[in-house]
Amino acid sequence: MMPDGFPIFFDGRQPYEGQSAVMSEIVRGHQVLFAAPTASGKTEAAVTPLFQRHMSFARQSLSTVYVAPTKALVNDLHERLVGYLGTRFPSAISRYTGDRHELGSASGVFCLLATPEALDSLQLRRPEALAGVRAVIIDEIHLLHGQARGQQLRHVIERIRRAAVTPKSARDSFQVVGMTATLDDMEGVARIWLGDDAKFIAHGSPREIDLQLIRIAADASVDPYLARARSLARWVDEAGLEKILVFTNSRNAAHALAAHLHRELNGRRWPVHLHFGALSASHRERVEDEMRANRYGICVATSTLEIGIDIGDIDAVVLADPPSTVSGFLQRIGRGNRRSGICRVAAFKTSEDDERMMRALVDCGRRGDLDDAYEYDRPSVRVQQILSLCWRATRHDRALSVAALAAEAGTDTHKPVVDDMIDTGCLTSARGALIPSDRLMDEGDAGRIHTVIAGQPSSAVLDLRTGETAIRDADESSAGGAVFIGGSMRKLVVGSEGGAFLGEGVSRSQPLARIKATGSGLPVSRSVVWGLARQHGHDPTRWQQEGARLVTWGGVRFNTLLAALLMREATGRRFLPSDVGIGGPVSAVMISVEGVRELASQAERANDFPISVAAKFASPSRFMGELSNRLAADEKRRSIPWTPFCRWLDRVSGIDMVGSIPIDAAEQPVAR
User: Fold this and answer.
1) What CATH class is the domain 6-202?
2) What does the pLDDT look like over 136-195, one tens digit per residue?
3) Three-class SS of 281-323
4) pLDDT tens-digit profile of 281-299?
5) Which fold, 379-445?
6) CATH superfamily, region 208-367
């Protein structure tokens, strides 16, 4: 069935059952969403049949685009696929990221690896290179679903589909293949990303989790990351481990732990590495290479190493900070012991709460109780797409009308946003041609219109040894502090005329410099809160009402919405949400599950929630500020997670009135 692909990707071995099921669908030209545990061969299952179709239809140029959400994963996949195809087909694999523009001619190329933003840029600036594309693979789709980047990628895929040349064979259909290890609502995700005729296949069960807790004595006088470093150094030595991957939840936590661990293990067999997004690409890649090549090593990272990247056979994964989502937990532990059936995981314990949190995450992972996700249409992402196409047409001295824009975008649903952009001055309609403002044309010329990720441009810190950028986003107010990078301690120096540098002369007692934060962390997900409820001996499907408190186990997002609904019903009363419930005059409101569901239905239909409430659910997007107040308010109201909120209510079996007989949901009075 796959005479060209199978001998290359499965030489001397047989595919797993899940791989076989997926490959048989993809090779027939179907749209497929595939869910399987980490390290289960999803890449081979997607690429093998698409390579076979590339050969069978005698395609002569780039036909498959493989999209990964991070540059690090693109680089890892590039090495793997070149390992399969590089000898027989040396030009078959190419990559295109913000760091590497390696695609020359599309002729002779089978697969291009790219990030969403780089693919957007390539399609805008060199659409002819993608004219022969017949398939798009989306890896780690759960990291893009429900995010502005995901909507951007779906628009880009539609642009590629619309601009593709007509194939010689009618059977050479355009395909989209999605892959994930952790994703709920497979059917809904497949429909949004792949279309109504998509097939979704889930196979395999998560590996067993071996959790070990490293005890740390609570001592307020000791830096918590110094205490972790000392305990971790002892544990690694006593356990006889060789290669360890450590995850934290922030840049500064990773930096502090790596620096302290370096000092604790200096001169020992374990070199300590640091990996997060603010480090230069060359430094991150050097860390990945050293972890792959060397027998011993400890790498401290943020989420940059959370997905898909093979940095060797990791003996154990250490969670220095507990992740707040089940997805993050499963992704992180999936990096370890990838060649065995057991995930060896260690975490720190300073209190009973630490242990409960970790056991809650393990319990959710074993149950398959995944995080709630919600996708909604963002006008701000449409602004980015409209601006991109109008910028290209203007620079090519080509008039782009609303109708022509719809043809290039592959959708006629941009029109309301086009009208809004004209009203706000972002666009001008000159005899029907859509022209961006001078300010936005400058943004396009500078290459700053290819991303929807919010945030300010980062500032570079130059290494005085090399003259190259070593790190970004150092907090210059911490000048004089120590920076751990490249296996040594350096000094953050600020020049007299501005600019930051890495110098020499750091003493052991020197405090650490700080790295600018990327924003607030994710709240603890509803699924994790349910796991915590079970650890405390509670049934999370039953609410508990006692006086001024309603325990729902809904997580802060759903409880924020619940509190807003009750305040909408009980005018003048205030309810305060938390991870586990809401506080306030709950006894003054006749609360029932069915009543809450009816309130949610009414509020969704009315679509008039206060913007101050709706804004709490909206994810940031770079072009939100270009919208009119009216359309910005519309986007924020679209972000209210009505669908997962109601799915959560469907799983609630009733409310227990503390001190009374439990009442089933169907028998409770409806809030009015």
Assistant:
1) alpha beta
2) 999 999 999 999 999 999 999 999 999 999 999 999 999 999 999 877 789 999 999 999
3) HHHHHHHHHHHHHCCCEEEEECHHHCCCCCCCCCCEEEECCCC
4) 899 989 999 998 999 999 9
5) Arc Repressor Mutant, subunit A (1.10.10)
6) P-loop containing nucleotide triphosphate hydrolases (3.40.50.300)
